[in-house]
């Protein structure tokens, strides 16, 4: 993709306890300021893609992930951008069906579970290589439910093609995190699922060579994008930032 003369763009990413901020940068050029970014996008909207995370970008982080909703006032701007740009897409660790319920906007593509599924024609279209891991995910979900029973402040989230444990609400976050990581490591070993750490969350998902960075590259190839703006706030967004800057 480096031969396309693309520019990459980014919002911010966060690791536990720290945040990393990036602005757009043309390949080999200095980072762009927000005003310069707006000018660059306006110059060539037909080959520009806007790709966004959901939690922490379009919706605030909340104690219970099931309560997450898109910030009021964003739908109209997203709808307008979708009419003008080559693509506006949401790429999230959430299931595509969740995005349909909480973030459906005309013209905006919804890619769930890091892009391993996309909401199309009224249903989630799942990549076959991800779907074959459903039995292992069912085992992981049941084992996690049993292991977490009686532990206050721990929340199990079933994403269909992934399962996650959150400890944001635990009184002792450090201790809860260590416990969750130990439990998930054992289950991952037995089921051959991959572990995906985040901010106060550990996720088990299919061990595929597919992440948000791969999803960004796939959109670039599909639509022949020359400029990509990406915004995210967690460790799972780091591959997407790298892809946007390639």
Class computed from helices, strands and strand pairing: alpha/beta
- Domain count, please report it: 2
Count of DSSP strands? 14
Distance between the termini: 7 Å
**Unreliable spans:** 1-29
Give a short summary of the structure.
The protein contains eight helices and 14 strands. The protein is α/β, with parallel strands linked by helices and 246 residues long.
Name the features.
alpha/beta; Rossmann fold; Alpha-Beta Plaits; 2 domains; 8-stranded mixed beta sheet
Q: Can you describe what's shown?
A:
This protein is of the alpha/beta class. The chain has two domains: 162 residues, Rossmann fold (3-Layer(aba) Sandwich), CATH 3.40.50; 76 residues, Alpha-Beta Plaits, CATH 3.30.70.1020. The strands form three sheets. The chain has an eight-stranded mixed β-sheet with strand order 4-1-14-5-6-7-8-9, with helices on both faces. The radius of gyration is 18 Å and the shape is globular. 39% of the residues are buried. The N terminus is likely disordered.
């Amino acid at each position: 993709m480096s031969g396309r003369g693309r520019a990459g763009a980014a919002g911010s990413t966060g690791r536990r306890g720290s945040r990393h901020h990036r602005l757009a940068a043309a390949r080999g050029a200095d980072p762009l300021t927000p005003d310069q970014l707006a000018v660059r996008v306006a110059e060539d909207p037909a080959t520009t893609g806007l790709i966004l995370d959901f939690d922490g970008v379009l919706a605030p982080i909340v104690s219970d992930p099931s309560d997450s909703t898109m910030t009021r006032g964003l739908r109209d701007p997203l709808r307008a951008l979708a009419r003008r740009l080559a693509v506006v897409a949401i790429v999230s660790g959430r299931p595509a069906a969740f995005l349909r319920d909480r973030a459906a906007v005309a013209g905006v593509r919804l890619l769930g579970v890091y892009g391993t599924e996309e909401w199309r024609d009224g249903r989630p279209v799942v990549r076959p290589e991800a779907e074959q891991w459903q039995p292992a995910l069912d085992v992981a979900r049941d084992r996690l439910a049993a292991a977490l029973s009686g532990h206050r402040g721990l929340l199990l989230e079933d994403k269909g093609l992934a399962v996650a444990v959150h400890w944001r609400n635990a009184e002792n976050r450090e201790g809860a995190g260590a416990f969750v990581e130990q439990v998930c490591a054992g289950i991952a070993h037995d089921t051959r699922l991959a572990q995906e750490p985040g901010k106060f969350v550990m996720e088990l998902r299919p061990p595929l060579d597919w992440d948000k960075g791969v999803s960004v590259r796939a959109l670039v190839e599909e639509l022949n994008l020359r400029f990509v703006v990406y915004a995210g706030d967690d460790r799972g967004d780091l591959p997407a930032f790298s892809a946007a800057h390639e």
